[in-house]
Amino acid sequence: MNPEFPVYIVSKGRADSRITSRALEAINMPYYIVVEEQEYKQYASVIDKDKIIVLDKQYQRDYDTFDDLGDTKSKGPGAARNFCWEHSINNGYGWHWVMDDNIWVFYRWQDNLKVTVLDGTIFKCMEDFCLRYKNIAMAGPQYDMFVIRKIPRPPYVLNTRIYSCNLIRNDMPYRWRGRYNEDTDLSLRMLKDGWCTVLFNAFQQKKQNTQKIKGGNTKEFYEHEGTLPKSQMQVAMHPDVSKLVWRFGRVHHQVDYRPFKKNKLIRKEGIEIPEGVNNYGMELVKI
């Protein structure tokens, strides 16, 4: 199976590596990749042109960076993500997927194993789960590094941040904003308004660590300024639930998601969930 809703990769300066693009092609999953006009030829030399969409520059001009630095440095990926949101709406979809461009592989966590998936079925599983409920605004797979084997975890966690691979409901009144931390900000604005988010432990993404690969925001942001401005912006955006901390040899932000435990899932009328396990045709095989 493949997802019902369109999949977008937002990419900049990574035509050579194109990590997420390779990952999706390996599982034969359809996608679009959104690039800036000046990089179109580079991407078109290695990716099917039908998959490439050139970012409308108006989205960059109109983007709310949540600071007063204007065009003095990169505005980050939020503008391209907003473009994807509108593109999916204009094509009649109720939801869309948007992904970072540095995801290596996707897993299903089954019988205490992290199993590499060979098609897009896990994305259809996540979509179907979300469509059962009235009040899910955003969902996505967990980072594989946060699910440790032999430590029991629930199949999903409610009401926390969704990073890097986001399934977003299109009729939400929000849009991406902020030069940094746009994932955390969008998650928090949804949660503060009473919506739910779903982070799936059962389905995972293996993502390249921040600042470890050329392109994206590595050169524009982190190579010169580190993580302090990023963390300071998060605290400025949401001071009621955010604070600065020192971890792993650098500044980070820490967000308290406990106030949102009160947000409960509301199932749609007429939805009946059959008993037992539906594996959607997936089988565990040795390769």
Describe the structure.
The structure is a single chain. Strands 1, 2, 3, 4, 5, 6, 7, 8, 9 and 10 form a 10-stranded mixed beta sheet that branches. By secondary structure, the protein is α/β, with parallel strands linked by helices. 25% of the residues lie in helices and 24% in strands. The protein is built from 8 helices and 12 strands. It has a single domain (7-262), classed as Spore Coat Polysaccharide Biosynthesis Protein SpsA, Chain A.
Instruction: Compute the CA-based radius of gyration.
Output: 19 Å
- What is the overall pLDDT average? 93
CATH H-level superfamily title: Spore Coat Polysaccharide Biosynthesis Protein SpsA, Chain A
Tally of separate helices: 8
| The first-level CATH class name | Alpha Beta
Contiguous uncertain segments of 5+ residues? none
The second-level CATH architecture is Alpha-Beta Complex
> How many strand units?
12
The secondary-structure class comes to alpha/beta
CATH topology: Spore Coat Polysaccharide Biosynthesis Protein SpsA, Chain A
The figure for the number of domains is: 1
Q: Write the element-wise H/E pattern from the N-terminal end onward.
A: EHEHEHHEEEHEEEHEHHEE
What layout of secondary structure does this protein have?
Layout: E1 7-10, H1 19-26, E2 32-35, H2 40-44, E3 52-54, H3 57-61, H4 78-90, E4 95-99, E5 103-110, E6 113-116, H5 121-131, E7 136-143, E8 156-158, E9 165-169, H6 182-192, E10 196-207, H7 218-225, H8 228-237, E11 242-247, E12 250-255
Parallel strand pairs: 1-2, 1-4, 2-3, 7-10
Antiparallel strand pairs: 4-9, 5-6, 5-10, 7-9, 8-10, 11-12
